[in-house]
Write the structure tokens for this entry.
Amino acid sequence: MPLPLIEDQMMIKSAVETALIRESCVWGGVAHRLLQDYTRVGITETEVNRRASDDATRQMLDSIGMDYQSGGEYYYGALATYRGQIGRSGAMPHVLAGNITFQAGDVLVTGAASSIYGYNSELERTMFMGEPDDRQKFFFDHMLALQTLSIEAIRPGGTCAEVDHAARAYFERTI
């Protein structure tokens, strides 16, 4: 575990480190776009996860070349997945994948990431199979409002408890 002084120094990134993080974002984004492109009613999350991750990693290796090193602890290359957050399981954080077949109307929670020389990025999105119904729109709109409110509550010197309080106050006022 890093010492506090070292942790403080690690927060400040050099231009090279920032460039590596941005490159990681690019390849996580490519993996996610492929995940979206490959998702169809009637096929499984496993098919889509593997295909999108493999194709994005191949594209990344073709671009970066033989010098590529992951440096990541958990994965190599670019990764795109649903992690089992599909349909009724969409609201379950960190649920295990289950080779679920996509159905019309499913809510999909996606994740995509990439590791470039030890610098990582991650993105998550919520998607719908087809047009969302009124109930899905209701919950999505509240999720988006809470996300926006929480980001606005983050400030230098602030605490996680203050952000949590702002989110809980939203629930008390709105829901």
